[in-house]
Amino acid sequence: MRRGFVLALLVGFLASCAARVPCEKTSPSATPAESTGKELFGALASDAAASGAGPLTVALHSIATEGDRIGAFVDLPHTACALVMAVGSPGVTDVDAFAFDDDGSMLAADESPAPRAVFIVCPPHPDRVYLSAKVASGNGLVAIGTALVDPDKAAAVARAVHARNLGDDTGRLDAWPGLEAKVRARRKLLGSRWDDVRRVALPIDPRAPTRTTVEIEPHKCIDVLATPSEEVASLELVAEGDGGHIVARADQDGRDRTLVLCTASGDSVTLALRPRGAPGIAAIVIGVSVEGAEAEVGRSVRVDHVTATQPLAEERKALGDVLTKSGYGAPKPVAIGDAKVGSRASTDVKLAAECARIDVIGGAPLGPLSAAIWDAQGALVAEAQGGTRATLYACGPARDARIDVEAATRPGPFAIESRSMPAPPTFVSHPLAASRLLERLYGDATVRPAGLEAARVARLSPTTLVKEPIELAAGTCAEIGVALDASNQGFSGVELRLADTGAKSDTISRGRFVTADRACAGTTKRSMTAEIRVTTGDGDGLVLTRDLGD
What we know:
Layout lengths: L1 H12 L28 H9 L6 E8 L4 E7 L5 E8 L3 E9 L5 E5 L5 E6 L6 E11 L1 E10 L4 H8 L17 H12 L3 E11 L5 E7 L3 E9 L5 E7 L5 E4 L1 E3 L2 E8 L3 E10 L3 E10 L4 H4 L6 E2 L6 H14 L6 E8 L5 E7 L2 E9 L6 E7 L4 E7 L2 E8 L2 E9 L4 E10 L3 H5 L1 H11 L14 E5 L5 E7 L4 E8 L7 E9 L6 E5 L2 E7 L5 E11 L2 E11 L1
Parallel strand pairs: 15-18
Antiparallel strand pairs: 1-8, 2-7, 3-6, 3-8, 4-5, 4-7, 9-17, 10-16, 11-15, 11-17, 12-13, 12-16, 14-15, 19-26, 20-25, 21-24, 21-26, 22-23, 22-25, 27-34, 28-33, 29-32, 29-34, 30-31, 30-33
């Protein structure tokens, strides 16, 4: 019985690869001259049309064998949903379908073990989308078709043809009941936004670790969820760096194991899994965050860092060189000390009536570090953590304060440097929100913040939607950030919804105290609305929309 269970799992998982367009290749096989591909859709196209979908358009059809992929670009009206269907002739027993943005980000997918794949892509979406179909099992003629759908009718069409993706269910985990729900709950807990880069089932054995390597892009994080099969009583998951040293150990969540890894400069880690006791199968789900997401997830779960430090003098010089080029003035040395594990090194400082960038720079062998600024009354001014440094943004009136520095895993030397920044009135009057917003939008990046005077104060509560219009010129992008200020004890849980004006589809970003999202316009201008609310308490927040250019 166990052999049949394992085989079912492997069939559902081993067809997956990283969700990137470079994985694609167009099948070289020729298409029979007498075929148009439309004959393959049959009742599927009829059911879609009967429920409100527009006429079927065949984007591509070709002969394909097991493992082959076919793909084509299609143009989509930015106000309409698109029903995407991939079907095969009787010899094709399992086909998967994908939709990608121009930058390789996966927009939607149906990877359920079935002879057809169907999903819906709704606004906001790019003007041009790359559609791909993969034959997971069998061989024969394969076709990709699309039909435009009014957003108001999308739910009805999805029900009629059993389409995926209105609820973010790709079907990839159908062979492992309950895992899709775990992934959704996990991502909701973390906040921010995540794209899957790998979902795979791996055989695991107590006699030797099973390893898989993953790349982490600069200023991004990965989230790892490992779930063992029933015969595995306990599972160990660690992340290893170069040379095999352990970077992080996963947290325990029942029988599951989870960890979040972030890096400032980009790195690769190897995930090693080993069961205690019987061998079996483990499902690994890896997601990658948007840039700067650490400020959102770091307040909800433990975050580990994989960036190694250099000698302190080299770290200080390297940072100073790039900050000077970005327009920052000369740094004001604040302190030099040694950070320890399990205790905090404290430094008294006097904060001026301004905003300041305060870098806590770690030197080898200091590992990941955390830092916080507290005023004389014990109120939090700013907090941050990082692999090589923690960058704090302190705004507000002149006052006495204290900077605490702590090593996460390895002790070592550190230096604290302060640099002046623009200080708009809203940032001075709402210092904690300003710190959180600057950390989320800029983090430890070396670019000098600009346009801060555009930030406005918004009164936020669970029962009120604060709406912010966003106008994007053709070919431009913008980022909107929201941060909560100090208020009553329960003031937390900020949600940011971005939607095209008049459209009912959206993207939602969440964080405990801060969140942000970005949007881009295609070849035409784009009108959007940002809706902001909190889940608990009420108080003031800062809202800032910044132009990202082309």
